[in-house]
Amino acid sequence: MSRSLRTWPRDLPWRSIARGATTSPSGGRVPADDPEPEVHAVLEQGRTSVLPAIDERSKAERVSLGDLEARSVVSVPLLARKQQLGVLTLARTERGPAYSSEDVALAEDLAARLALALDRGRLYHEVEERSDAAWVLEHVADGILLLDRLGVVRLWNPAAEAITFISTADVVGHSAAEAIPGWKTAVERVPVSASPDPGHDEVLIPIETSRGERWIAISGVRFFGGTVYAFRDLTDTRRLEEIKADFIATASHELRTPLAAVYGAAQTLLRHDFALDETGRERFVSLIADESERLGRIVNEILLANQLDAGRLDLDSEPFDAGDLVERVVEATRTHAPPSVTLEVEAPENVPQVAADADKVRQVLVNLVENAIKYSPDGGRVEVGIEERDGFLRFHVRDEGLGIAPEDQEQIFEKFYRADPQMTRGVGGTGLGLYICRELIGRMGGRIWAEPNGSKGSMFVFELPTAEVMAHGQRGGPRLQLGN
Ligand code: ADP
After folding, report:
1. How far is the CA of 398 from the centre of ligand 1 (A)?
2. Long-range pairs for 94-97 at CB < 8 Å and ≥24 separation?
């Protein structure tokens, strides 16, 4: 029977057992789990052991290996590159002579080959693990920075490049303090722990990049060769947090104003100490009606934005007459538009029908027209128009109001974004209207954008595929994506 094992000094379990005979005087017994001290000694001393020793054969009868009675045992250390990998133990349990010096030489030769094979296997495994680690570093979304004890950058992964816009070539081999702008001051605030335990602290710090300020969440772990830092880009999350905080301030202001007006008007109507004439009563009642309607609109906007986010909105796609819709929206708005604003329609006689959710298109149009009026505090002309363009029906709402700064033209469609959050011109809002418009138009297979209206004011444009294009899918290419 022969046994081989591969292990390291402290932990020496039997790894594999092979039997060379089907029956033996010692039956099916196997050695004890923990090999004998003699086997341990072979590993520790790195020397072959033969039992009974060749010169003591005359006295010795049996050698016990745990439960196993053997006639002769050879244990050879498995050594590779001066490392102890384990012990190969051969035991003869059947009748026959004790192992000879030739047997020992054979066992040693076998052990040398085994050790070589084991070592190669281990090396291969290590190389594989390292290349896996390199892949992870290459593809992980977190930025990884490895500093040696002297603060020199040893590793800077592609995510770190992408977050900071600093190329690997510019940092690796350089001192972090010199190669990474602001690192010297920032590093003092970065928590560094001694082990990579889950849930250790990270800190949010701003860094200056060639493309503006970015906010990163960063933490470090110290090890004997230096410190490894991991960081994530939280610029967008932070911006969203700021926008949300602004939104809460704005929304509560927006809700409070009509609520206060409703409350005030109701209190006045309830007073008995002076009598209101019919006109006075009507004024207060219609104020209550208007302000309640405004409150309802704000609450609806919040609910609708929520539904859109959760993907819980079903949209119709029926052909309808857009010219008619534009006329009706303008008519309805005229009834309450301030006298300083003139509303006009620019639409050819015959425009093709569009296939979309008419109610939602009306909602978008009302929002844009209301905005045009709202952001024209000094009045002016508001024009609502439609025209056919290349399989799409293009709607526009032009005004001569405050206009939109070029840097805000994209952002105003983001949730909660208000170009004028401090309401310097006294114009209130939740910053949800245009977000809802963009979401609705996108889900109906169209697109929406803003541009300047010549030299004064702004123009909002949105396009929807015509009913014919929707039916036959002729033009429009990738813009035709209907549904949620
Ligand atoms: P709200 O009007 O409730 O703030 P919106 O989403 O409708 O929210 O609009 C977002 C921002 O876009 C507004 O705060 C405003 O700064 C800007 N904006 C929208 N429409 C116009 C317009 N017609 N003229 C100028 N700025 C506009």
Report:
1. 13
2. 94/21, 94/24, 94/25, 95/25, 95/71, 96/71, 97/72
Judge whether 458 and 404 are in contact, CB under 8 Å: yes
pLDDT tens per residue across span 341-378: 999 999 998 889 999 999 999 999 999 999 999 999 99
Q: Pairing between strand 380-389 and 341-346?
A: parallel
Tell me the per-residue pLDDT of 5-43, one tens digit each, with 9 for 90 and over: 434 444 566 666 666 544 444 444 555 566 777 778 888
Q: Decide if 445 contacts 470 (C-beta within 8 A).
A: yes
Place of tokens 């690997």: 168
Residue for token pair 């410190």: 227
Letter string b/e over residues 58-86, b meaning 16 or more CB atoms within 10 A of that residue's CB: eeeeebebeebbbbbbbbbbbbbeeebbb
Cα atoms in the 13 Å half-sphere on the side-chain side of 323? 10
Distance CA 155, CA 184 (A): 18
Q: Long-range contacts for 387-391 (Cβ within 8 Å, ≥24 apart)?
A: 387/347, 387/348, 387/351, 388/351, 388/352, 388/466, 389/463, 390/475, 390/476, 391/465, 391/466, 391/468, 391/469, 391/474, 391/475, 391/476
Mutate to test the pocket of ligand 1, among 412, 449, 453 (most ligand atoms within 8 A of CB): 412
Please tell me the distance between residue 410's alpha carbon and the centre of ligand 1 in angstroms. Answer: 11
**Nearest atom in ligand 1 to 417's CA:** 10
Give one word for 426, left, alpha or beta, with left for phi > 0 and alpha for psi -120 to 50. left
